[in-house]
Amino acid sequence: MNTKIPIECACPEAPAGKPGLLSPRRKVILLVVGLVLWVVVYHFIRPGTAWLACTALCGRTDMHFKEAVAFFLYEVPKVLLLLTLIVFAVGIVRSFFTPERTRQVLAGKRESAGNVLGALLGVVTPFCSCSAVPLFIGFVTAGVPLGVTFSFLIAAPMVNEVALVLLLGLFGWRVAALYAGTGLFIAIVAGWVIGRLHMEKHVEPWVYEMQAGPSAGEETRLTWSDRIDEGLRAVREIVGKVWPWVVLGIAVGAGIHGYVPEDFMASIMGKGAWWSVPLAVVFGIPMYSNAAGIIPIVQALLEKGAALGTALAFMMSVIALSLPECIILRKVLRPRLIGTFIAVVGAGILLVGYLFNLVM
Tens digit of pLDDT for each residue in 5-22? Predict the structure, then answer.
């Protein structure tokens, strides 16, 4: 006779809730350990990559190749480490500023103060070219003035965390602050100008017929554990998507750094060429790239003699006036308003380029 013997599991019962998730306390401990490791690794990047470059290129006599490889080996880990840290921090900050909450904050705000607030919120609110149309519709239907909406839409792609962290890593905090300040200035002034022109009639009529979506009051409150998860998710999504562009951009920059003569770049993009700033903007507007791909190239151009104002004008025109975004916005804007948007922002970028070529 076979008797079934009950087998009791010796394992403790799993806590209620989602299986496999770390507790908030363990998340904090792992976060602190990760930050300590980040500091240690970042501290040893320069001597480590210098040793690696010396070992790998010991028998080579081509100095141009040596300079290009040394540039590449040093910049790739440095920029990726900075990118990971800043994107994580910005991901936590962005958890406080969802598009719905931003829309509610801006609704009913008057121009001037609304332009400043819209530009500042544009920096910390998730935005990409593909979301331009739904954000625009949501803002307009919620009563946000057209000029304030444009301040937000201009600042969001222009002053982004990828651009800031790359500029910080490649040029230092002064240039990064310069980029952020001038980007916000352009967004605020351009939005104010567009608002003063009263171009509401050049928005497609069907936009005003749409109903506003849910308000921010319906959002679920997040705990700090949730916000850490948001920061980690931002790292996975943003760094996971842009790291190939970072490596590619640094590779192109390394080639320029090692092989392009300094006099050549200085003659084309130097301070002495008055036409270099408008030419940089004209070339930048139809291009499509992100900050990850364009900024390492800008670094190499600066090292070869390009003027800072010209390089910033080129970078801003590529990031803020991308052709795909203009095509997407055509769904909600008529050509005259799109043309005004490009002209006003382009004029602001030109002003920034000439200003910094003059004073720096």
Answer: 444 444 444 444 444 467
